[in-house]
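Chain and backbone:
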Amino acid sequence: MPKGVKIVTAYDRSDLIRESISTATENLIEELVVVSVLIYGFLLHLRSALIPIITLPLAVLIAFIPMYYLGVGLNIMAIGGIIVAMGDMVDASIVMVDNAHKRLEEWERDGRKGDREQILIDSAKEVGPPIFASLLVIAIAFMPVFVLEAQEGRLFTPLALTKTLAIAMSAILAVTLIPALLSILIRGRIFPEKRHPVTRLLRKAYAPLLSLALRYRWILIVLSLFLMASIVIPLQRMGSEFMPPLYEGTILYMPTTLPGISVTEVGMLLQQMDQKLMSFPEVDRVFGKAGRAETSTDPAPLSMMEVIVELKPKEQWRKDLSYEDLITEMDQALQFPGVTNAWTMPIKARLDMLTTGVRTPVGIKIFGPNLKTIETIGKDIEMIAKDVPGTRSVYAERVSGGYYLDFIINRDEIARYGFTVMDVSKIIESGIGGENITTTIEGRERYPVNLRYQRELRDDLDKLGRLTVSTPTGAQVPLAQLAELRMVSGPAMIRDEDGMLSGYVYVDMADRDVGSYVEELSR
């Protein structure tokens, strides 16, 4: 790189991916440790605790085989399915180990009559079929998830598929591997349940409660029904949301202003926004963008800006500061006249825009044949939404806020000088808009050469009108004599959806759930 120039990453998802994998790994390890500790604590037999430690990872690894042939990628939701399945998968080993201990305890109490291996086999045969059936029932219970469509289908199908496959593999191991491990690992002295300190303590605590419950059973039943009915009030007040957002460690700040803003002004505005955002101690770096590249995948107008705010790890934040509090502080600090703020996260925003086209948590689409009417309705909705509790910002698109320079050709005048309409249109197009006259070749690179009037000759209507045009007779005629120059307003951007013109109303909300907010806004 040249001296004084360095490459800085504007947005990096690797930290989020590593943290997600780390969280999944920690959950898997925690479940293995907790299960092993519980088994050892209740059975006081170390080798028995090895059975779930061996079977759980094996069931997960074997489940990867059908996942591979089914083309299921190992994303966050797929890993989440494995984590959810752990609680069900471990039941098989726990029940089999506990039943084997029970039968061996009875075998020792009866004077060790019969073969020890046969006792273990009989204990596995006793609970094996019910365990296998119960695990299959749990696996089948997730089948309705596979009929989900659209966003929810793409989101939850990997989770349901990995959970189903993991439980299915666990069911197979429950009737094959676990019985073999019982005869290998369950050896040595079996601690009798009646002398077990944990069991004795639990029985002492449970016996009085059981006696009390049976003595006052009708009071207990009525109290249970009352407690069950009491959840109706909090259930009605509880909000609803499709899925809580994943904390990505990055903020996507998307301010929107009215159409017609200049490139110079939007650049100055972005600089001020970046400076204010960098003043927060929780911010690591900021990258602002306005306009769009020459691609159809990013059709953002100049009035819609995007600022990526990379945050520091939460350990470096101010004490007792939450993500929502930080967004509130930033929103209060970045209040600019004529600018409407919207706060989201990069991955969430891209998913929302790909699925619905709306980048905010709540959006309203207005369809109709007339752009002016769509804009009027959008402004009315904007005024109504401002008064709904929880609204942080609302912006209705100004679909007719663009400015255009029209040339109305005077046919009588151009006929006097021997011009046709096409001749004058060509002069206007090439002189003001520019025309590629050739291509320069620089090795493997190609660059078009564009010819048009200098900026100082075309940055004002009067100057444009005074530009002279050569007539076929050689005379020089001002452009204003051939055409009328007029500034008119029109649509800055035209949206077309389902064969109809459309306009969007973007609503950014805070401090409440999406379901209740939409319900109140609809009323």
Observations:
- The chain has a mean pLDDT of 83.
- Residues 76-109 form the longest helix (34 residues).
